[in-house]
Amino acid sequence: MDKKHKHEEDEFAELGMYPEEEVKLCRIDKVNLGTKYVVYIDTGIEDIVIYRDLLRMLRTATEADKVEVLVNSPGGVLDTGVFIANAILDCKAATTAIVQTAASAATLIALACDTVEVTSHSYFMLHNYSAAGMTGKGNELKVMQKFMDTYIESVVRDIYAGFLTSDEITKLLDGTDYWVQGKELVQRLKSANKMPGGCDEQTQ
Length: 204
Known about the structure:
Blueprint: H1 3-14, E1 18-19, E2 26-31, E3 34-41, H2 52-60, E4 66-73, H3 78-90, E5 94-103, H4 105-112, E6 115-117, E7 123-126, H5 138-159, H6 166-173, E8 178-181, H7 182-191
Parallel strand pairs: 1-2, 3-4, 4-5, 5-6, 5-7
Antiparallel strand pairs: 2-3, 7-8
């Protein structure tokens, strides 16, 4: 191994990002003149501190790079999901989500990608936020509730646009859960312009 590649490996190992031989959160593959990053969102989504390396990669990736996000997650911390989704939306590289299960906050990450690949056994579960951790005096809880309702509506109307209709998003905000798989999932991804080219039959 030459000094350049050894330095690169040491640098990414410090960040929690490893080359293909030692897959952790992110794998790095050289692709022509760019770099292919493979990211794993395959546990519950936790505190944002765990994803610092991922956020750094998304911020520094270039137009010559590619990012694949493998999603198999029940969701988790909303703020983390929104932070990662926004980083994906701002990423200069082409981004693709490859989904087995995307539930709750994980759907934000998947649908933030430029394209989404699924199989006949993939599914999404979308719902309104859970208010765990909200504490305070009665008037403070009312203010927080009002703020969160407005905030969440802005997030889901942005990221779920096309995947859910405007009426469906309204129902989601009122408490309806959406479980989507198979041909319905493919059709919704088409409506949201998230299907990769030439993959119309990927669930068959």
